[in-house]
Amino acid sequence: MALLLWTVIGFVVCDLLRRQISFQVQAMAILLTGNRGSQMWFEWLIFLPGILLHEFSHWLMAKLLLVRVLRVSVWPKQRENGQWEMGSVWSECPDLLRRSLIGLAPLLLGSVAVLFIGVSQLALMDKMGLVIDGNDLGQAMGDILTRPINWLWFYLTFAISNCMLPSEPDRAPWLRTSFYVGLGLMLLFFWGYNPTNIPQILLDLGEMGLTILILAFAVTVVFDVLFIVTMVILQKILETITGKVVVRR
Hints:
The protein is mainly alpha-helical. It is built from 10 helices and 4 strands, in the order αααββββααααααα.
């Protein structure tokens, strides 16, 4: 239960940070170019690796679930409601469960990618261990940022982690799916099914999956906070130079 709670908290926090980052990127685009139409292109360029992985995740899950993919796009496009999308995967409309899994795919693959880069390339787990043992956080971050190759992995982690959360259309079938799954579990319990009889391997897989998500969310939060602080400072400098102020509505 604790793992599930932390997973939900991590999802909400990352979603809030993603919205703030989107605003900061768009604000910088307006200050640098003076053109509101450039803001989506700035955001698309910055997060391109994450966008590619996001749409690939949809495509891969659709293929694995034997759902026919009609069209794939990784180009910015404005929807009919005025909102922008950075990419999309169009497929035949499958059943509710498969739609939910296709929408969930970027979170699953993105979390694995973020955790893999963080552990294998940036040695974040080792750095966290140093901090826990009493060493300075600044020294740990300095060890990461002083190696030039790490900047590439830093950027990829940032781009992927901010594109791994499912979009609003991705999440659309989740509520109905959760209702039917919950109803099914209630019926099983009513008919005498004992939840303590769940095979241990399934419990272990569930715990491992939630742990991966929580760690990926933790890495994302650290990177996002660093980026937001940097962007706020740059925004204030540009606002001072240009005499313009970008206000969030």
